[in-house]
Amino acid sequence: MHNPSHIGDTICAIATASGEGAIGIIRVSGPETIEILKQLFVPRHGRPLEQWKSHVMHLGRIENPDSMTIVDEAMLMVMHAPHTYTREDMAEIHCHGSPLVLHHVLELLVQRGAVLAEPGEFTQRAFLNGRIDLVQAEAIMDIIRSRTSGGLDAALHQLEGKLSQPITQIRDNLVHLLAHIEAGIDFVEEDITFVTSEERVNGIRASITALQALIDTAEEGRILRDGLVTAIIGRPNVGKSSLLNALTQSDRAIVTPLPGTTRDVLEEYLNIRGIPLKLLDTAGIRHSRDVIEQEGVRRTYRALEQAEFILVVLDGSTRLEEQDREILQQVQGKQYLVVLNKIDLGTQISVDELRKQHANALVVSISATTGTGLEDLKDAVKKAVLHTTRQSDDQVIVTQVRHKNALCKARDALELVLGSIENQQPGECLALDLRAAVDALGEIVGVTTTDDILGQIFSEFCIGK
């Protein structure tokens, strides 16, 4: 548990982002919510807070009861348990978005008995009180942190329970099978067959297939959630910086006709067809006696090693040079896409020859200057990096490494169960591995989860959520 000392306490936190704003919101949750706010909030209509209807905003003012001074004019909404985010009594105070005002109100709440919430403590209470499972709790943080529509959609599907449902169904099937196996162990002398060997095998194989289908989506999910480090490489003056500027629609990189203009690695985050890319614009690769340019080339090679995806930029208006061939050779074995730039100046490189020489490499012709082919490039990037196994965009995907590891652990345990059945091992051996699979799936949704795991998950949340 994230902080056992807060159980039973009434917690409070600023829920809006730091800095000035039109409105600032403070959340309160816990058994003393109404009693604490009765001491601070003076409603304009004069009705006591305990008579308010749930989920209705009321205008009034926050007062310091010690000095009898007005802190701010505010709106207050009281929400009665269990129909709240945490399933506890809750309230939201909508003040003016001054950091000074918000912190003053927060201090008054603490003086009256509330405690400052830790990161993710509101969502942790929602989980502990059974409103959401652990997958849905993690999805809330992914929604807050999402940088692209693809990542947001994946998180929303998980919040709706579309990942929890199949995992829970698989786990329920395994629990049912485990119960029959353990009953067979307990009543071994009664000569009763609770489940046949064929039923065991078929049930376990079906579960393995379902688990593998989820595991197969994990790489796509990781990309949508965390993004992809993408290096733009090529020899000098092929238009790498122009490509970065065209994709970001800005003058992020300096562009001149002089080779070697880019001396360092520039970083820029970009959303391409719902995929978050961390673009690295690198110095042109060539032999140089310039010490600064040599350092730039060295950093380019380091970026090349770190990159998960590579855009190899060639000048399509000239014939391939030896440096181009060397670069193409260096990216073999990596995930890459060839960008044939400057086609507005004519084409001197054969796309078919490139594909023949480099294992049917994906090649896109563009002009970074005029914008020709940029939409085709974006489509090609999505095709190259998302080897989707989904039948539709609505199909759930696994985005968390924690989930993938637990799914793999469950699958491997079930493979051991199959091996035990084939080797005619006693029921105790089957039950042991089957229980391991059940526990691994329980860790995902939070049925069987240690305090350490909960602490790690909720510590990544922002305060006030």
Write the layout of secondary structure elements.
Elements: E1 11-14, E2 21-29, H1 33-38, E3 41-43, E4 56-64, E5 69-79, E6 90-97, H2 99-111, E7 115-116, H3 121-128, H4 134-145, H5 149-159, H6 164-186, H7 197-215, H8 218-226, E8 228-233, H9 240-248, E9 266-272, E10 275-281, H10 291-306, E11 309-315, H11 322-330, E12 336-341, H12 351-357, E13 363-365, H13 374-385, H14 401-422, H15 427-445, H16 451-458
Parallel strand pairs: 1-7, 8-10, 8-11, 11-12, 12-13
Antiparallel strand pairs: 1-2, 2-6, 3-4, 4-5, 5-6, 9-10
Helix pairs in contact: 4-5, 5-8, 6-7, 6-15, 7-14, 14-15
- What class do helices, strands and sheet pairing give? alpha/beta
User: What's the CATH class label of the largest domain?
Assistant: Alpha Beta
- Distance between the ends: 16 Å
Tell me the fraction of residues in β-strands, as a range: 15-25%
Count of individual domains: 3
Going across the biggest sheet, name each strand in turn: 3-4-5-6-2-1-7
Radius of gyration: 29 Å
Query: How many strand segments?
Result: 13
Poorly predicted tracts of residues: 252-264
Specify the CATH homologous superfamily of the largest domain. P-loop containing nucleotide triphosphate hydrolases
Instruction: Briefly note the CATH topology name of the largest domain.
Output: Rossmann fold
What is the ordering of alpha helices and beta strands?
EEHEEEEHEHHHHHHEHEEHEHEHEHHHH
Largest sheet: 7 strands, mixed
Known CATH architecture of the largest domain: 3-Layer(aba) Sandwich
